[in-house]
Amino acid sequence: MKKIEVIIKPFKLDEVVQGLSEAGIICGMTVTEVRGFGRQKGFVEIYRGREYEIRFLPKLKIEIVLNDELVEKAISIITEKAKTGEVGDGKIFVFDLEDAIRIRTGQRGEEAL
Amino acid sequence: MKLLTVASVFMAVLSLSGLAFAEEVQSKIDTGDTAWMLIATALVMLMTVPGLALFYGGLAKRKDSLNTIAMSFVAFSIVSVLWVIYGYTIAFGEDLWGIIGKPSKLFLSGVDVSSISGTIPEMIFIVYQLTFAAVTVAIVSGALIERIKFSAWILFCILWLSLSYLPVAHWVWGGGFLAKLGALDFAGGTVVHINAGMAALIGAIMLGKRRDTTLIPHNLTMVALGAGLLWFGWFGFNAGSALAANGIAGAAFTNTNTATATAALSWMFTEWLFSKKPTILGIASGAVAGLVAITPAAGFVNIIGAIIIGIMAGIVPYFAVARLKPRLGYDDTLDAFGIHGVAGILGALLTGLLADPSINEAGKGLFFGNPSQFYIQILAVVVTILYVSIISLFVFLIIKFLLGLRADRNDELIGLDESQHGEKAYNLHF
User: What distance in Å separates the CA atoms of residue B430 and residue B423, rounded to the nearest whole number?
Assistant: First the structure.
């Protein structure tokens, strides 16, 4: 099992979810509003004529847990759907996952996904 | 109602001499005026709570937003109580030496339900004026937020109302020396806005800069809602200042709306030109600047005058907040001076130029052949600025000595909501 954390531009969420659903890859995900910065440094907001540099940009973080064999396919779909070609499109992080438990039934491992 | 009036007039004619009859008519309550002034009073109340509270609260940082709202709330409450105890009689009691009113109506003594002020019950006049005093004090808070101790603000409300607002209100409206001089201030450009704006500037300087001097609004929808309520309530402020339901009230109403809309657009276009984007904060700020600038002029200028005032109110305060403030370096958090002080001075001076005697015979400006009116306006502005600045400095020094002005460093960093009130504006609670 792997856990994928994906940071994307907020307006790309629908496309990513649709792409993953259509390919039958996911049966669940968690989405969080987050802020951060990478190479896309920040931007300027102007209030009453004064400029303020906003360092942390709003992004969405998606967390998905998958069977190992689905990971590459998921990565290629996410990369395709979340891409605009500009700085700030986000990142995908892949982790090994030790275990998963479905609270209702107590099922463990891939059965719990 | 009409029949009754006709009958009573007939009786009066029969029973009294011509002179006595004239006096009798003058001191009669007009039910139309009375109904309008009841409504106008409630409208002005709405300007402070929640109008100004939302406008300022949305502009504040999230961690200071409740404290900012609380400052308007508590200002309204303190002034409400002090006004009926001694505020009214000091501002509007019988004139003493042109400086203050006679304290003969402490606790409204001698005022009963049959007391009359003009054509309305005196009780209504009292509470109408109360709402003006309250909003004036609350406006000052905009310059002080995000660092002033709540206890210091409470003491400020008491001292500043007593030493600054009451005398200036007396000078201009209560028969004091500026009234005798002939200064024009229809609804309070001098008394309310220059007064509050100068106190705001002195306060910002006395308090010093915040540790984080940004103005990044935590909730702009609140700001827009608050500005809308200010605009709405201001009809009571300006049209109500006719103290009657008549043509001058109508002119003041129309002028207020015209100048405000013009200023909202004028600020928006100025900003579009100089900082690239038309912001809702700019449109709302322009509207407030327009409301302030038309205040002294509302019942004196014609519609072209209102448009000119609106255009200027979108430009001059913009440069005051966007250029002057950063250059001079004072930290007027929400631009209480930049908007109320600057637009108030602008409006008071333009009234001296644009007052049209065909709208209101009481006011004739320089453009209508009366240059001395303009000089009187300058004098009234200068006298108010000098007096308010000195008194405000004195008030802030007293508070600094007695309580201290600023919240301590840590309290400021964690936010005044938590440090002063033990509350948070937005709780995540499952």
Answer: 17
Compute the average pLDDT of residues A65-84.
94
Enter the ipTM: 0.73
Instruction: For B31-421, give the CATH class.
Output: mainly alpha
Q: How confident is the model at residue A27 (pLDDT cuts 50, 70, 90)?
A: confident
Pick out chain B residues at pLDDT < 70: 1-26, 429-430
A53 touches chain B (CB under 8 A): no
Residue A52 touches chain B, beta carbons under 8 Å = yes
A-to-B residue pairs, Cβ atoms closer than 8 angstroms: 32
* Cβ-defined contact of B318 to A46 (cutoff 8 Å): no
Please, what's the b/e burial string for B412-425 (b: 16 or more CB within 10 A of its CB; e: otherwise)?
beebbbbbbeeeeb
Domain over A2-112 is classified CATH 3.40.50.720: no
A51 touching B (Cβ < 8 Å): yes
Q: Which residue of B has its CA nearest to A50?
A: B322
Structural domain spans, chain A: 2-112
Q: Where along chain B do its domains lie?
A: 31-421
Q: How confident is the model at residue A106 (pLDDT cuts 50, 70, 90)?
A: very high
pLDDT for B16 equals 41
d(CA A29, CA B9): 82
Least CB–CB distance from B277: residue in A46, A48, A50: A46
Residue B391's closest CA among B177, B183, B205, B167? B167
**Per-residue pLDDT, B26:** 54
Answer whether B285 touches A (CB < 8 Å): yes
Virtual torsion, Cα B290, B294, B298, B301, nearest 10 deg:
-110
